[in-house]
Every structure is written in C-alpha cells, then in structure tokens.
Design brief:
Structural class: alpha/beta
Radius of gyration: 14 Å
Helix content: 25-40%
Number of domains: 1
CATH topology: Rossmann fold
Largest sheet: 4 strands, parallel
CATH class: Alpha Beta
Number of strands: 4
Strand order of the largest sheet: 2-1-3-4
Bound molecules: 4-nitrophenyl phosphate
Number of helices: 6
Length: 153
C-alpha cells in the first residue's frame, strides 16, 4: 500500500484539492491519499467553498473532507508527503525527527518542474481565479504522481 499525504497551511484550500484530484486519478485499492494542514485554525472544517466549487466543476466531490493538523506520526504512516509551498516545507521539515522523515517531504510542483522549488500560491485571500489556477497546477502535478505510483493504471 502506497500512502500519500498532501499538506498546506490551513488544509481547507490547496491540500483538499490535491487529495481529491489525486484520488480521482488513482483507481487502486493499494493507494491511500489524505491531506493535512500545518496550522490548526480550520481543524474540523470542510474545505473552502471555492475549493469545493472548482473541484465540482471537474466532477470531483471534496465536500465531505474535514481539515486536520499535520502530526509527527504522519512521518511514520505516509510514504510521500507533498507540501504546497516553501513555507509548508519549512514547517513540516522542522518537525522531522531524522533524515528518513525529511526524505519523504517534497514540494509538489517539483514533480512538474524538477528542482525549481516553485510554490502553489495560497489562494485564500484571492478571488476565484486563484482557485482555478491552483486546480490546474495541482492537476498537472497529480498526473505525474499518479503515473509514478500506478504506472499501469
Ligand atoms: P490553504 O489556504 O493552506 O491552502 O488551506 C489557507 C487557508 C486558511 C488560511 C491560510 C491559508 N488562514 O490563514 O486561515
């Protein structure tokens, strides 16, 4: 079983989309996908309305997700921890206990633009365009991740 965790700050805008998009591309019972936030502000909440709405446009229902905080035990549970931006990267790396933990953490856009260390911009304070833009970037990244995890599927 391959386990993938998507991480952003609030776990209400970007990582819920990343979770929903990757799940939609992987038709295997051997993969588990989840998401979490490094901040606790929105724990227990549904994804942001704008994330739910853009996902729905593409036929993906993320409305039943609930925000949770990233915890150190996630390093034990997950094989790949994809963070949305450099700030998330620093926050997650600061919790790593060893090199093995650190090696699991990757910037998600490096799957599309290797070594460029680009951010998925935080769309929280922007308008709907930001969410569309985020969706497109995550869709491309998740295509690459899905092929890596499940080359035949
Ligand atoms: P996310 O966006 O990290 O993509 O879920 C944010 C949502 C909420 C906040 C920041 C970013 N906030 O500060 O409340």
């Amino acid at each position: 079983m391959t386990k993938v965790l998507m991480v952003c700050l609030g776990n209400i805008c970007r990582s819920p989309l990343a979770e929903g998009i990757l799940k939609s591309k992987i038709f295997s019972f051997k993969t588990f996908v989840d998401s979490a936030g490094t901040g606790a502000y929105h724990v227990g909440e549904k994804p942001d309305k704008r994330s739910i709405s853009i996902a729905k446009t593409y036929g993906i229902d993320i409305s039943s997700q609930k925000a949770r905080k990233f915890i150190v035990a996630d390093f034990d549970l997950f094989d790949f921890i994809y963070v949305m931006d450099n700030s998330n990267y620093s926050n997650v790396i600061s919790l790593a206990r060893n090199e093995n933990d650190k090696a699991k953490v990757k910037l998600i856009l490096n799957e599309v633009f290797p070594n460029e260390d680009l951010d998925i911009p935080d769309p929280y304070y922007g308008g709907d365009f930001g969410f569309k833009n985020v969706y497109k970037m995550l869709d491309e990244a998740c295509d690459v991740i899905a092929k890596k995890i499940n080359p035949n599927g």
